[in-house]
Amino acid sequence: MNVHLKKVTYEVIDEQTTKANIFNADSPFLSHEYFSILGEVPSHYGDFFVVYCDGRENGVIYIGHSSEGIGSLLFKQGFVNQTGTRRYDQLWIEYNGLLGQPSNNGAIAEAVLRYAFEKGYVRFSVSMTIEADIWENAATKLGASYSKSQTVGYTKSLEGLATLEDVISTLSKNTRAKIRKSIKLLDASQDDISLSEAKFTDEILDYFSCLRKNHIEKWQNTIEGSGFQNTFFDNNLLRLLIQYPDYIKILKVQCAEKVLGYSIYMLRNECAYFYCSGINSKLTLGKIKPGYILHCKAMSYFAKRGIKVYDFMGGESQYKRSLSDNTVVFKTVEITSPHFKGKIFSLIQKIKCFILPGN
Description:
With about 350 residues, this protein is α+β, with helices and mostly antiparallel strands.
């Protein structure tokens, strides 16, 4: 099979992603909507490509790049659908891969790696993919070495869950007790738990502002910080909510007059993908679990609308383990060029790890 990549502008990609959208029904990130975020990244951080297989358009991919100087040497690194720059990558991607027809992914991965190595990239990264074997096999064919790490994601089946009680009853005895005690401590009953979806622009702006405030309050003093302090993250997430209301939703969950929090979801192929939330920190003290209640109410809300799976996505957390019934394993693959400069880069990294263990 003859596979080649053709560099194009985002305007061309915008049309191509619309055509290719149908082939990646299982990933909200491999979509026309999500790729519009990459279209907002300054062009010198990466390039869009149409992938051709035997002369026919097969899909699209974004290859971002960054540089690292070590002494007098400059090493370029490449990334699939990311830039390698925190400002633009904080709107993270999961279920990463090619936007397009999946049948030729092995040959396409090999063509992408060939391109990367020809361009002088010493390392090429594919983060949070469930198709790591495709990239590993392509690397092996080209004589490249690779390393990988994994992150566990969590999901919950929504089959047959029409009410809040239906959801709670599927959980462990300990988790059920935590949620019911939380509702009792709020001087409420399950009937007092309500959910509303922002459907108009003024509602979206209001909910988004409140979620942002809660999220910053919780995360601003951590190492990661809050994405909402990043204007690229903030502006583009809000743009998606306004521009693509069928793709992404923002919800508010209350207990009587008390707002428990807000949450954002991407919707794809009968699955609700939980992206982020802003929980009311005033209610998180003591034994009240507003986040647990929010997720359970959201599950029943989506289940009644025909959604079959609630996906917490990647990242280890006690609440995800407690509320889920299945797991997904994401892998990040880092492939080192087999060329001389790639070997030098690899050697330097090993020396750095030896001198500064833990880095």
